[in-house]
Structure formats: C-alpha cells, structure tokens
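Quick note —
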Amino acid sequence: MKSNQFQNLNLIEPILRALTKEGYETPTSIQEAAIPIIFEGKDLLATAQTGTGKTAAFSLPILQKLYERKPDDKRNIRALVLTPTRELAQQVETSFRTYGRNLSLRTTVIVGGVSQGPQIKALKNKVDILVATPGRLLDLINQGHVHLNKVEILVLDEADRMLDMGFITDVRKIISKITSKPQTLFFSATLTDEIQYLAYDILNDPSIVTTTPSSSVTKNIEQKVLFVTQENKRDLLSDILQEESVKRALVFSRTKRLADRLMKHLLNRGISVEAIHSDKSQNARQRALAAFDRGRVKVLVGTDIVARGIDVEGISHVINYDLPEDPENYVHRIGRTARAGANGIALSFCGADEILMLKGIEKLIKQPLIEFSDHAFHSSVIAEIHKRRTAAPRISPPFGRRRNKPRATGGRRSAR
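Predicted structure written out below.
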C-alpha cells in the first residue's frame, strides 16, 4: 500500500511529503475516522486505544486548517493542546513540528518543572500552536503572559488521565479564559461516566468516534506471565534484558525508589539503562527519554506516570517488573510496544502477592496471560496458587447428589 492513501483524507501536498519522509503509508482507524470530522469543523469525542496514531489524527488536520486559513493577527495562539504530562506534551509538540516541517507555522511547548523564562520569551514571538500541561499554562495565564482570546481549535489529549491526576479544575479554568468559540477535540483512552459528563459539558453537539474499547489490547502484542518470587525478580530481569531478542525495553516498577534501584542493578550488570519518574527534573527526564529514543540506551525504567507519555518507536519489549494495582494501567503500559501495527512482547512478573492483580488484569482484557515457565527462576508454587484461584469453582447441588429422573417408558420421547 502506498502513501497516497493519505491523499484520500484530502491532506495537502506539504503534509503528504512530510508523512512520506516519516515512512507513513496507511492511515490508522482513528485517523480515517477523525480527520474528516475535524476538517468539517465539528466538535469531536474520540475514544482510542493507546498506540493507534491519535496524535496524528488531530495534529494533521489542525496543521492544514491553520495553514489554509490566514489569521487576522499573527501574534495570537490559534490552536491549544492540553496534555496531562510533560513527556506527552513534548511528544505532541515534536509531532506538530515533524508533520508541519513544510509549513510556515510555529509551535511551542509549556510545561512545569523547568524555568519559565525561556517559555515566556518563546510566547512573545509568533505562536500558532501551543502544547501545554494545565498547571504551568494556568500559572502563565494568571501572570499575563498568555492570552487565549483567538483560539480556533482546542484539544484535550488523554482527558481521562487528566481527570485521574486531578487537573480538571485547572482545565476548566483555562477553558473559561478562552473568549472565542473554538472547535473542541476531546481524546480519551477510556469513556467512564465521569469522562462523558465532562465531555458533554465542554463539547457542542460532538461527533463520536470509538475505535477500540479501553480494555482491548492489540493482537500484535504477545502477552506472557512469569511466576517468580520477589527476591528473584531482579536476576530474572537482568537475564531477560541480556537476550539478543530484546532490542529496546521499557520496564515498569511500582515506585520511584525501586526504579532507581533497578537502574543501578542493571548498570552493574553491564546493561545500558536510564530511569524516568516524577522525582527527576524535567531536563533529566528529557535527556533520559531522548537517549532511549535515539538508541543510546537499551532500557528505560519508569513508573506509571510515564505510561502514556512515552511515544518511542521500536520498543520490542514491555516488562512489568511489578504488576499495576489498576488493571487499566496494564493496558496503557503494554501499549507502548506494537505501535501502529508493529509486533511486540509484554512480559509480566507475578509474585505471590500479585496473583489477585493478575486476575484483575485477565478479567479486564478478557483473556488469560500465557504462562512462560522456561526460565531459571520459575516458581511452580506461585503458578499453582494462581491455577487454583482461577479454576472454576465446583458447585454442588443442594441437599447432596441429585438423582437422575426416571426415564418414561412407552410413548415417544419429546424432543429436547
């Protein structure tokens, strides 16, 4: 299939050229569904599984609409994208730059955790597209450095994550500062009652696009569970990461402290690794993510806060060193691999105290994880406990064993 399939979405030649350079050939489902709606100027409520190309689904038509529609005042922010995490904001802004490399549009990003001076300086220049996290943006609005009176398009990316992280109050305050009536695009990986209430409070008669339910996992991910005691997890991890099949691995730990300890352990084993979590400075997080993205390090260890903020191609393995307490986080974690149609492997370490978490994950995704026991640290005891707990319970009939009914003699048996 050729890249001209994107032409069917009425994208202009400069954007098609940028997509060709990136090696994009075929639109994903969310792109095919969302782009025409955005071109029509309608508000949009989109539910899309992570890794399905939703950033391009909104950035491509935004770039084209802004390029084709000349502004009255070039100093105004014309498109605003709100994201829950710094990493995701950086990734989204990079996507706008990449797809819009042949267009005369300027983008900038505003996030917390770094000095606001350079951000204020950037805002004084022409900014067509602003990508921001809610807290820092609201702070700069209150200081008088950001004005949103000419915003044409507003995007809420990973809206469910913003709700989980407590940013919705800030988001509502930001929206109240937008005096224009922008086209609003609402993207979420899940569609809970809270998310629907928020969406319909913000959106105006939206079109609805749902590509896959939040509990689904792409078939391109091979999901395995490894039963192992807690004390053997570190050695099992280092053994796996030294295998040739592991090209680039993302490892999830439950705590920031453990992420740092795992990084030191792997470095001592000669494995190139970086750690990324909320205690790291923004510059340190960007350096670690850049090193991982460019292949300078093989392994990135992180916590759930970065599960939706990492968009790196070529991740061959996602390893759940600790199982997540929230089963939905499992879906977001492993969605970092097998992106945009590629194949990937998800390995989950399960200790004795994590069996109930495993059961919750399997219930959510509606399938059991494949047990992988061909490793030096397999715990048959934990595997047996899991097997017993997931086996269907035997239900005895009331008052003991029920006798068979006597078969009628004579006459014809009725059809059953």
